[in-house]
Design a protein that fits this description.
single chain, 405 residues, alpha/beta, seven-stranded mixed beta sheet, 13% strand, Aspartate Aminotransferase, domain 1
Length: 405
Amino acid sequence: MVGRVSAISLLYYLYDKFLSMKAMQKNKIFKLPRRLQGVQPTLIRQIFERALPNSINFGLGEPDLPTPNFMREEAARVTLEEQNGYTNHAGLLALREKIAEQYPHLDLQPNQVCVTVGSQEAMTAVFLAIVDDGDEVLIPNPSFPAYENCVKISGGEPVFYRLPAEQDFGFDIEEFKSRITPKTKVAVVISPSNPTGKIFTENDLRQIAEVLKDTGIYLISDEIYSDLYFTDEKPRSASEFYERTIIVSGLSKSLSMTGWRVGWVASSQTDVVKAALTLHGFLAVCTSTISQKASLLGWTTEAEQAKRDAREIYRRRGAFLVDLLNKELGLRGTSPEGAFYTMLDVRHLGDDLAIAEKLLNNRVITVPGIAFGTEAKGFLRLSFCNTEERMTEGVKRMKEALRES
């Protein structure tokens, strides 16, 4: 009897150990926190990273022009001649003063500017600083896909306002107004737009300001492409018309400095900048000191000339590509007003994702419109950060691939 009890006790002991081990194994399984569930790398990157060797890249929104020599020479000098430890979390005072001067209508103080690791970090930090669980954020459809994901990471709910394809992706104030609810905390405008290249007009921005007046809603104005415009005048900033505007911008596009990672948050909303700065301090400590010091030349006479030269090059390339697509493929691309994108209408050819896959197999990288939202479904975003020779070859390959379908 004693032996039987001992055997039963041993079995219970072993079973208990088995359950404990199973529990330990279960606890070792990695589980994404709720704020990251469903957040994936953008379709833009997924397609780019699957590209075959020697592909023509119409995909990434990255300038192919070199960073101006005077900027590179200054970075080299600073590296060799100066100590380059941490800066203030907010960035070099001299750099923040130069950024503030870019918005004279706001009369910003240096504490209302935070230098970030590119505009991507600026955008993320601002969302995390403003948005709470359940807050709604109005985002253009179509728009850069990072916005939707950053809203989700911050605990907010993305709500999309259409930039209607049938209106060449122009702004529609009634559509914008219809999306506002008591839960709306933030609205986003991107001008010039990624992916459409459209610019919000002064009238558009005034209408937005009128609708948002006295609502307490913040407006994030993404102005990373503001120096790349093909209109007669530089695009207006939403901050000129609406007080609760937070500007997100940087030097990546205008001076071909994508890898230098210099962006900023700027706003008269001091508390928002302060909160974003706190997050920035924990996320990055500070932006690269070498990049910051070189960026002090970003508003010199040489820099302004480099920006003008880049605008003219991209203006010519955009017009060239749109004309080429029409002549060789019989397809219509939108006429870009800024940035370096055209939206190619392929709706009558089939699914845009399937077409992008077909082109990818023929060594042409494009981005299906669905990557930017439902309104762009049936379009391909094409970047003209390429020489005319490369774009000609790319369209030739597109023609071959589409002929086979």
